[in-house]
Amino acid sequence: MVFIDKTIVPSDITPKAVFENRRTLIKAAAAGSFGAALAPWFSREALAATPEKLSATLNSTYSTKDEATPYKYVTSYNNFYEFGTDKSDPAANAGSLQTRPWTISIEGLVKKPVILDIDALLKLASMEERIYRMRCVEGWSMIIPWDGYSLSKLIDKVEPLGSAKYVEFISLADRKQMPGISSNIINWPYREGLRMDEAMNPLTLLTFGLYGEVLPKQNGAPVRIVVPWKYGFKSAKSIVKIRFTEEMPKTSWNQFDAREYGFYSNVNPQVDHPRWSQATERRIGDPKGMFAPKIKTQMFNGYADQVASMYAGMDLKKYY
Ligand SMILES: Nc1nc2c(c(=O)[nH]1)N[C@H]1C(S)=C(S)[C@@H](COP(=O)(O)O)O[C@H]1N2
Ligand SMILES: [Mo]
């Protein structure tokens, strides 16, 4: 990932306000309570364009108290190379992604392989909201309220065989819907993977929404993985396949450059990327923009209590 970050990110609205505002608006719209007072701009068309609401219960145990990054940054500053390599490309280009019909194939070393329709997958377990710290390998971070359920709930249903040691996630790669596929930056389809215990960790979220609404296309609709203690690229978007394997899966970024992008890619301020330090990060949407004080990156992105035991005895400089 060769990144030149030219963005200065101002903030003119507090995250909480956006959060509350959207919720109230959507609730009111759903209940039809605008009545005669419905503003002229809030037409039927505008209502139709309102993203579909997801009802999710906040899981406070797994949620950070840090203030959430405003919705507009979460949905306009993205990495989704299938739609281009600039941060603004996914929001501009992902409109062509068709999220229905959508199926996801669960295959490989499981007793019950299955092809699931996205709407069945959505209902498989109860939806939770988890406000997670997200850290990109490029040095920026966001706080995102994701909606989904633990991937372990799905894994339990398909009953992995004893020989299954890893889980591979494969994203959609359709040249017709994804303009970025025609440039060979990485080996398509985008592929990522986790060790079985990582995939089963309750923090690993099978994600369908953010801010209480279905995922915007640029954020990986209709379903993606979110692994908050690892660099952002481990969290594969718009997935169509989950495969259980005995061998460590080959991942797209590791194949691109194994020296720069390891399989584990746990957030670790002590292990520098070959071309830059990982000790600090810049919070997207900070009102001070470029002048915001750098935040110290935490071991495992602050999730050490929940995940460090999985790596006990491992040399994390070697297994980066
Ligand atoms: N399929 C796919 N998944 C992907 C990527 C991608 O390019 N393609 N980029 C990754 C990277 S580098 C990051 S930082 C996160 C960004 O997720 P967000 O845009 O929802 O914040 O998605 C990850 N998942
Ligand atoms: Mo990233």
From TrEMBL:
Post-translational modification summary for this protein: Predicted to be exported by the Tat system. The position of the signal peptide cleavage has not been experimentally proven.
Entry's cofactor comment: Binds 1 Mo-molybdopterin (Mo-MPT) cofactor per subunit.
Domain of life: Bacteria
GO MF term list: metal ion binding; molybdopterin cofactor binding; oxidoreductase activity, acting on a sulfur group of donors, quinone or similar compound as acceptor
Domain Oxidoreductase molybdopterin-binding: 98-253
Catalytic activity: L-methionyl-[protein] + a quinone + H2O = L-methionyl-(R)-S-oxide-[protein] + a quinol; L-methionyl-[protein] + a quinone + H2O = L-methionyl-(S)-S-oxide-[protein] + a quinol
InterPro entries, per database record: MsrP, OxRdtase_Mopterin-bd_dom, OxRdtase_Mopterin-bd_sf, TAT_signal
GO BP term, example: protein repair
Signal recorded as keyword: yes
Binding-site residues for Mo-molybdopterin, renumbered to this chain: N78, Y81, E82, C136, S171, N219, R224, S235, A236, K237
Enzyme Commission (EC) number: 1.8.5.-
Purpose: Part of the MsrPQ system that repairs oxidized periplasmic proteins containing methionine sulfoxide residues (Met-O), using respiratory chain electrons. Thus protects these proteins from oxidative-stress damage caused by reactive species of oxygen and chlorine generated by the host defense mechanisms. MsrPQ is essential for the maintenance of envelope integrity under bleach stress, rescuing a wide series of structurally unrelated periplasmic proteins from methionine oxidation.
Protein name per the record: Protein-methionine-sulfoxide reductase catalytic subunit MsrP
